Amino acid sequence: MILTTPHPLIHLALISTNRQAANALDVDKIIRPFGASPPHGGLPKPSVFTACATAEQHRPKHLLGRAPPFYFFERLVLSSNSIQPQTPGFSENKYVSLLRDNHDYRQLYSAQIVSLLGDWFEFIAVQTLVFTLTDSGLAAGLAIIASNLPAFFLVPLAGSFADRFDRRKIMIAADLVRAGLALSLLLVRTADDIWMVYLFQTLSVIFASFFNPALNAAIPNLVRRDQLLTANALSSATWGTMLAIGTFIGGIAVATVGNDIAFVINSLSFLVSAFFVWHIRGALGEARAQTRATLNPFADFVEGFRYAQQRPQVFWLLLVKAAGGLAGGVILLLTVFSFQVFGANAEGVGFLQFARGLGILVGPLLIARLVRGRIGRAQNFIALGFVSIGISYTFFGLAPTIALAMVCVFCAHLGWGSNWTLSAALLQRLTPDHIRGRIFSMDLGMLTLTMAFSTFVTGLAADHFNPHFVAFATPRAIAVAGRTH
Hints:
The chain has 485 residues and is mainly α. It has 2 domains: 2-91, no CATH class; 98-484, Up-down Bundle (Growth Hormone, Chain: A), CATH 1.20.1250. The protein has helices at 19-23, 27-31, 48-57, 94-101, 103-134, 137-146, 150-153, 155-164, 167-184, 194-222, 228-256, 260-278, 297-309, 312-325, 329-341, 345-371, 378-396, 402-430, 433-462, 467-473, 476-484, and strands spanning 2-4, 12-13, 84-86. Strands 2-1-3 form a 3-stranded antiparallel sheet, with no helix packed on it. The protein starts with a strand and ends with a helix.
């Protein structure tokens, strides 16, 4: 493989059989010994032997004693913005390359796949169960609130845990507890048991509140800085894929077999997720000499809030998901419209959620291609995403058939998925590891607060007004958010 650059002084012909070692190289440390850049921006020409010797000095400890440096230069990048590996007639997909070459990210990605699949099976089952037993949009909305709002109150504690303790152990413990809670939903049989849905959903989101900040804070420790947008686009697209597949198959399964199968599948998915996280080899956070005695959630939260407050770009990014959460009530409307407008019941909920997932799948991949590393354009794309959500859900309220409604939902979540990806990637780039968990905990907490508020108002309105009117009124909030951004 030939490494080429617009600066013609550097041409290294190198062979690779150890991609893991190459990915683990600290590029800045390799370049620095070669000296400062010449006046015209080119680097002084190093010999292959000099480059290899420098790389050998900076090999990660866990790779010492393995293949000599000649064998892991395939992934070397000598300039973060100019050099790209090239092979005549071949351009490898960056997503495939990331999953193939990065064992630890692949394990985290696999855990995400199975866990999300189970989550969406359960979502369909819970919404169908509550709406069938109560025939109330508010009751179904309260189930969504129970699975979101508690995360807001745990922001100080969850963020502090993610920054101070082993993130792998946090995620595994959260998965194991949620596996048991998922099975507890099998106890719900009548309308008098609905309180158990709210209880178990609340307990589940409490542990999810520790899992998610730890996961998001860990990603920058598993991939290179220039791969953050790719990794987040892949994660968001996977979220959308599993939403589409899980809700589509889950809707059919619940309609034909019943709710119980979804609860069992979700429980098993948490166990498989814990298995994959356990097999991550590398560190998910920087080593810090901190103990339980130093844990002070309130002080840690204040430190994180001040960090964001003093950096307008970080603070603005924290508002992106929160603003999107103002339209969270439309997710409840997918259930209401399926039962009350289209008469499609559980299968209809699955179809509409499938369209939602498809939009979240395509949106991140599309935005990653449009941005192409030009992060300065992110604000414009985020504003466009908000406007897309507002307009699409306005037309959703007017859709005469479930097929047209699916098109509207798909278009809305193109914007939703792209905004989620951009805000996450930018926050990971802008925040250091020691505070990243708190930043993402605040990010999640603000989202869940606005989603809970929107869902409650939408559920209350759905019980007193025509669903079409509610669908027309709800997206106004998200359109306003788009104009303010």
